[in-house]
UniProtKB/TrEMBL annotation:
Residues 68-79 have a biased composition (Low complexity). Residues 57-79 are annotated as: Disordered. The keyword Protease does not apply. Keywords: Aminotransferase, Pyridoxal phosphate, Transferase. Gene3D superfamilies: Aspartate Aminotransferase, domain 1 (3.90.1150.10), Type I PLP-dependent aspartate aminotransferase-like (Major domain) (3.40.640.10). PANTHER family: FI04487P. This is Aminotransferase class I/classII large domain-containing protein.
Amino acid sequence: MQSQCIWTPFKVLTPLSFKPSSTFFTFSFSKQLLLPSKSIAAVSSARRAISSYPSLMASSPAGKDVVSTQNNSNQKTQQPLQHVAKRLEKFKTTIFTQMSSLAIKHGAINLGQGFPNFDGPEFVKEAAIQAIKDGKNQYARGYGVPDLSSAIAERFKKDTGLVVDPEKEITVTSGCTEAIAATMLGLINPGDEVILFAPFYDSYEATLSMAGAKIKCITLRPPDFSVPIDELKSAITQDTRAVLINTPHNPTGKMFTREELSTIASLCIENDVLVFTDEVYDKLAFEMDHISMASLPGMYERTVTLNSLGKTFSLTGWKIGWAIAPLHLTWGVRQAHSFLTFATSTPMQWAAAVALRAPESYYVELKRDYMAKKEILVEGLKAVGFKIFPSSGTYFVVVDHTPFGLENDVAFCEYLIKEVGVVAIPTSVFYLNPEDGKNLVRFTFCKDEGTLRAAVDRMKEKLKRK
């Protein structure tokens, strides 16, 4: 008796392309074959085998892509191991994420991460809503909505007296963090030396590592965190490509003086060195006027000025930043930006333009409000028993925690969260050598007054000198 075969249509995987240098395999389900029904099970098994194959984008720290494990039926299965590029191996989950997670777990008041617990101004939020309603929701021009670029140029002229071309010298980015990344990746070559001032915002080191730079560090030390000029002079060599400055300075609250900036400028001109200057806290300058490096004689042509909307308008989640630089430097920044994010949120850019055209009274009130918040925190910390270091700008205060007897800043911050119910940030994460920051922690006062008073009360009640 002749056996019968029932033919059934079945889609199978057929490879469309394979590049030996690539980690991607592309398959198509488009071809349909007639297969005997007895063969369907075999094909299905093959499909399952392919779909369960470990991702080719994951590999082990030892360079092996997978490990074998044994399941209950004595069959070996393949489990992917994680891998990270060597240039990022040393970087863990950011301290801000760690501390904020602990804050939630223990119900602690978060005076650690630098974001306000209050909202930005209504007129700016309404501008964003209107932009969305007006259909401004598709990709913006890669380097920025023209109206925002113009508003940035107008604001920069008011602040520095410098006239810049909004079409050729301003690049809008997804927050200042992306502006920093685009600047490093667009203007720094592997092996270039870049000088940082420690303590520093943690993304500086990570981004420079991605760019393959050689990092040199000049440490700013308490109580005044002044720039050690002789040390800086010794650090600059023929391989130095750039100096990265942050003023007002996170985490210390230091503002670089005109004398310090002028000395740095002279050294950069003399040695043909660029300056990248992070000025996101420029409107939170309390005890002296902010000075933009680009405004000093001979410096605009070698300076990239980095800034953002978030700190000034309490809209950190919008991630609107920008880089201002002469055409020959803007080219590199834009090249990197094109392949990082290409463009930034369109409706938020339209609203940012409205924000930057706020009357001067807005900035006066902003500073007045933050000075009142700062006083609540600083006086409270003094009463608790901390040694306070001066903060001339930003919304941060750095203190010496050693009167309370914990071995280092990380141990102190963990104790503060778990036993006292308040969050601070250990500053050792802001140094190449963590030992330099082990005695210091950072508090922020970008919170409403009730939150600040509640945090101070908790510390007065539960935190005791040892």
